[in-house]
Amino acid sequence: MSVDEPPFLAKAREALKAAQILVQQDCFGSAANRAYYAAFHATRAALIAANQSGPEDKWSHEAIQARLGILTRSNKTYPSHLSSDLPRSRGIREMADYDTDMVNSKTAHRAVRTAEVFIMDVQKAILP
């Protein structure tokens, strides 16, 4: 993490890199897991940058999603699609982690692409 990099943005990028590698190796469930956490950490970075959270705050997945919804409605710097992308990614991750169904290639690739766009949108909003 660089001196000027917002907290959790480096974690988001690392999780995204892992998701990209995993999807290339046909590890679709694990890729979906890492893609969700990339978006989750990017959300934490956005909330911290907007002074809606501190780096030490602990949030549940539900609370993070709710706060993101408030942020995208109140701060037009953040695209509104973020508030629907995060819960959709979480649903795919939960299927990968807890269900007997396997994540297929198409779903995993879409999850990784969603995480890429998610992080780019957050970076645009919080980096100078």
Overview of this protein structure:
This protein has five helices and no strands. The chain is an all-alpha fold and 128 residues long. α3 packs antiparallel against α4.
Number of strands: 0
Helix content: over 70%
CATH topology: Four Helix Bundle (Hemerythrin (Met), subunit A)
CATH architecture: Up-down Bundle
Supply the number of helical segments. 5
- How many domains comprise the coordinates? 1
CATH class: Mainly Alpha
CATH superfamily: Nucleotidyltransferases  domain 2
- Helix/sheet category: mainly alpha
Largest sheet: none
Shape by Cα distribution: globular
Whole-number radius of gyration? 14 Å
Average pLDDT reading: 93
Write the H/E string, N to C: HHHHH
Low-confidence segments, ≥5 residues, pLDDT <50?
Answer: none
Strand content: under 5%
End-to-end separation? 16 Å
